[in-house]
Amino acid sequence: MPKLPDKGTAAIVWDPDGDNIVFKKAFEDIVFKDEEITSEVFEAQFGQTPVDEFTEGVKINFEAVFTREDIEKLATFCVGATVSGTTSKQIEFSVPVGESKYQYAKQVIIKPMVNQQPVSDESQWLYLYKCFPGRAFEIGFGTDQKKFSFNFKVFPDQDEASPTYGKTHRFGTAAA
Predict the structure, then answer these.
(1) Which residues pair with 118 in a beta bridge?
(2) Closest alpha carbon to 64 in 90, 25, 30
(3) Which residue, 153, 149, 135, is CA-closest to 66?
(4) 116-125 per-position pLDDT tens digit
(5) Which one in 13, 77, 103, 137 has a CA-CA gap of 20 to 30 Å to 67?
(6) What Cα–Cα distance (Å) separates residue 128 from each residue in 123, 131, 132, 172?
């Protein structure tokens, strides 16, 4: 049985078997959501009271807010973002329209942190098989700190040869 800690922050690992980009400095709580999407069934004799309900799918995502220290790393995998510049770095954003995000989706692991370091106990990790971030920046030019919000969408693995085909995520170590 997985053992998720009751409290504490976490590290986010993007594409652990490839780019292996680690984010340890989330600004606010990392919030994971797994929501069932349903539709109700009605029959005339019961009026507006549902007589049944069917599952139509699930909506899974996690939200994370980052600071200026991580924005360059985040831009390396954002659709429509390019990092360039010689003497001073710049990040330029375009508007990608009509482009599939699944083709860029990678595995993400959320690892609880203790003493500013990710825990090594895999039973405490949350694995998201196919995940991709959407950006939602709100940058105030006042006394508040600049924050960069990302909403990572989780998709079912569509690779039929993969052991995680049709699945979205798991808590804890893989079954033997």
Answers:
(1) 113
(2) 30
(3) 149
(4) 888 999 999 9
(5) 103
(6) 14, 6, 10, 11
